[in-house]
Amino acid sequence: MNWQTNTMANAENISTFYAKGKDYWEMVPATIDGMLGGFSEISNIDIQASARFLNTFLQDKKNPLGHSRAIDCGAGIGRITKHFLLKIFDIVDMVEQSQRFLDHAREYIGSEANRVDKLICCGLQDFVPEPNTYDVVWCQWVTGHLTNDHFITFLKRCKASLRKNGVIVIKDNLSSTDEVEMDNQDSSVTRPRSLLLKLFKDAGLELLAERKQYKFPKGLYEVKMFALR
User: Which residue of 6, 153, 188, 223 shows the fewest CB atoms closer than 10 Å?
Assistant: First the structure.
């Protein structure tokens, strides 16, 4: 089934898809447990795997990744910003559609919050990052809230925002089948790997590396990280 053709056939459906997702997150507590759907115990394992994955590019002697500025897309209250991105980058920006989450961010991040520059309240379908700005665009557990078409255009804008040797990282759940799986509770989709690769290609991006997230509890979706440029 072509999910977008059949369930996103018109502007009204697309608008409802985004509105339902936003409404869901407005009911979620501004806590780590809220950000992780009740699985706060996976946070450290998640961060450690992300750091190992990105370290491959930081240690690339031929085309080293810079550490000037990163952006956390779908940042929530700043879990990834605090525990991961601020450990590597001088400045981090955050984009998040919930103003309530952003209002909690600086307090949650604490002493390093002065190195968080822009707190941008915006859905990724509408977000336009500044060109030639970021060493890393980090998107985790958020692209399922985008339609296929908006995902492609978002990736194209992200590509234009990269500095020399910069990378886009998509870290997300993968469907256990070859079909798109719809979650009507939070109004999101889980895509199969094959569709993700097609969308990356349609956005004009090269897949540099991919890696599976290990040591998550059984019963959760498979999670993979994709580095793109």
Answer: 6
Separation CA 41–CA 229 (nearest Å): 31
Q: Find tokens 């060493």 and name the residue.
A: 135
Instruction: Convert the pLDDT of each residue in 23-66 to its tens digit.
Output: 999 999 999 999 999 999 999 999 999 999 999 999 999 999 99
Helices 193-202, 148-161: inter-axial angle, 10-degree rounding? 50
- For residue 68, give the DSSP letter: S
229 with 204: CB under 8 angstroms? no
pLDDT per position as a tens digit, 98-137: 999 999 999 999 999 999 999 999 999 999 999 999 999 9
Token pair for 102: 């952003």
The burial of 12, by beta-carbon neighbours within 10 Å (0-12 exposed, 13-18 middle, 19 or more buried), is given as: exposed
